[in-house]
């Protein structure tokens, strides 16, 4: 593999680091230490970063759309279904209605802000197949 800095802009390299940091944080927050979970979480992060590598030409576009579809399916499965126990704050009975509303809006805004570059690059990769 070639030097990433020659192809990917600095912001995307830093974003890739944030994705791995997020995966590490998710593992720590979950408290799970089984090797399958840890491997799947880091694979999800690696597949997420792979979309950037594909878009910026570090890795060639897969010959079939099924590969990026499989990649995004795994990422969504891991992050939304397997990690669903981490979203317990939405039903925390110790929070009053105003705190819950603030938390949902804040977390939603933060997630949208954090995920925007990822969502953008996914759309760009899939546009290649149209």
Description:
The chain has one domain (4-127). It is built from four helices and no strands. The protein has helices at 10-30, 35-55, 66-82, 97-127. The model has no long low-confidence stretch (mean pLDDT 89).
SSE blueprint:
Elements (H helix, E strand, L loop, with lengths): L9 H21 L4 H21 L10 H17 L14 H31 L3
Helix pairs in contact: 1-2, 2-3, 2-4
- List low-pLDDT spans: none
Strand content: under 5%
N- and C-termini, Cα separation: 27 Å
Helical residue percent band: 55-70%
Arithmetic mean of pLDDT: 89
Q: What is the number of beta strands?
A: 0
N-to-C order of helices and strands: HHHH
- Number of domains as seen in the coordinates: 1
Shape: globular
Label the structural class.
Answer: mainly alpha
Rg measurement, Å = 17 Å
Number of helices: 4
**Largest β-sheet summary:** none
Structure keywords:
about 130 residues, mainly alpha, 4 helices, about 70% helix
Give a summary of the structure in a few sentences.
The protein has 130 residues and is mainly α.
């Amino acid at each position: 593999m070639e030097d990433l800095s020659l192809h990917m802009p600095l912001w995307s390299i830093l974003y890739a680091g944030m994705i791995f940091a997020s995966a590490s944080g998710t593992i720590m927050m979950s408290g799970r230490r089984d090797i399958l979970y840890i491997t799947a979480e880091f694979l999800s992060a690696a597949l997420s970063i792979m979309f950037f590598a594909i878009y910026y030409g570090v890795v060639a576009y897969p010959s079939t759309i099924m590969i990026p579809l499989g990649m995004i399916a795994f990422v969504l499965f891991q992050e939304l279904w397997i990690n669903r126990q981490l979203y317990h704050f939405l039903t925390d009975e110790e929070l009053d209605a105003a705190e819950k509303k603030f938390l949902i809006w804040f977390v939603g805004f933060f997630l949208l802000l954090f995920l925007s570059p990822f969502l953008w690059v996914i759309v760009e990769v899939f546009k290649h197949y149209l």
